Amino acid sequence: MDTKFIQEKFKSLFKTEGNLYTSPGRINLIGEHTDYNGGFVLPGSIDKAMYCEIKSNGTSTIRAYALDLEEYVEFGLGENDLPTQSWAKYLYGVCREMIKRGAAIVGFDTVFAGDVPLGAGMSSSAALESCFGYALNDIYQLGFDRFELAKIGQATEHNYVGVKCGIMDQFASCFGKEGSLIRLDCRSLEYQYVLFHPEGYRLVLINTCVAHELASSAYNKRRQSCENVVAAIQRRHPSVKLLRDADWCMLKEVANEVTPEDYIRAEFVLEEIQRLLDVCVAMENNDYETVGKKMYETHIGLSRKYEVSCEELDFLNDIARTSGVTGSRVMGGGFGGCTINLIKNELYDGFIKRALESYEQKFKIKPQVYDVVIKAGARKLL
Ligand code: GLA
């Protein structure tokens, strides 16, 4: 994205120049709804990001301009200063979480913008949190490491936005590396970079351009289901703190002690954790046919067991399957947003054409197509 417009606006609003920072959105190859269960994920940061120019202003007020929305807001950083605009809550939340951890943050001026599509499952909100987390850490020399910055972003979602998300999105935005996916163990936060160059294949996202309402409350309910099952298992196995710690025998033991709905959600999580491990082995062997097969399995699980898909996503998944696409599934939290598709180079054009035409014909909405380019994580630009 050209940051010229951010810089021009900053200069005209604040009559000075600040520093420029960016942090990206993410894809996730496999491992969905496993992060808050302590499982594994396989995300990568992408070439779509949030950008901010920022400078300390010597007052106790934040003066922020959201360029894409053309909205200007001023707010303080006291406990009761939560702004009403949803985007400003992210900025305020990041600052408050830093202050809770002992940071001395005073007022600043900022203009920000981005090209991560909103509501598409590419984590525009984590990109925003990480962009400001990284920027504030740098301009005030706060000394937080990237782990802490990711946790600050996650805590912002929990405490100021109301989404009880896992750590995947913020971690990917903070730790991303060009050309690599991140195999992250969400229990220990140990991670490895995995080179991702699937010879002969491409990764492409198709955005349904729908974001169904209540997605965040449904997301929190899924998390609650998992916690209910953990609580039941814990009665027999106190060392189990997360679904990741449980095995199939432990799950089966509580089949009659949890609701059928919670049980089937937990089944999905255990299967998905295993699927990710299988995919990592397949990638080591350059076996992308197996990777693709697992992606379809994830979609079926997310659609039928975890119930976070929707008609539009299922439709795109069907088109992929019947067009010979190697792997396809709903990506991210669900209830709209994108499918991620692993496709052989020679099938790409035909599939995209068919998907666009048939989707538009059925839903009267033009879907968006994004080729996945894996780029670096949060950083200073100027
Ligand atoms: C959202 C959340 C993540 C993760 C995914 C599902 O993106 O923010 O923490 O749970 O959904 O895998």
In a nutshell, what does this entry contain?
The protein is α+β, with helices and mostly antiparallel strands. 43% of the residues lie in helices and 23% in strands.
Overview of this structure, please?
With 382 residues, the protein is of the alpha+beta class. The chain folds into two domains: 4-197 and 376-380, Ribosomal Protein S5, domain 2; 201-371, GHMP kinase, C-terminal domain (Alpha-Beta Plaits, 2-Layer Sandwich), CATH 3.30.70. Helices cover 43% and strands 23% of the residues. It has eleven helices and 13 strands. It has helices at 4-14, 86-100, 124-139, 146-161, 168-175, 215-236, 248-253, 260-284, 288-305, 311-322, 348-363, and strands spanning 19-28, 40-41, 43-56, 61-66, 71-76, 108-114, 180-185, 191-195, 201-211, 327-330, 336-344, 368-371, 379-380. It has a six-stranded mixed β-sheet with strand order 5-4-6-3-1-13, sandwiched between helices. Strand 7 (180-185) and strand 8 form a beta hairpin. Helix 2 (86-100) packs across helix 3, helix 8 (260-284) runs antiparallel to helix 9 (288-305) and helix 10 (311-322) packs antiparallel against helix 11 (348-363). The radius of gyration is 21 Å and the shape is globular. The relative contact order is 0.17. The mean pLDDT is 97. The chain binds alpha-D-galactopyranose. Alpha-D-galactopyranose binds at residues 32-33, 35-36, 123, 165-166, 168-169, 332-333.
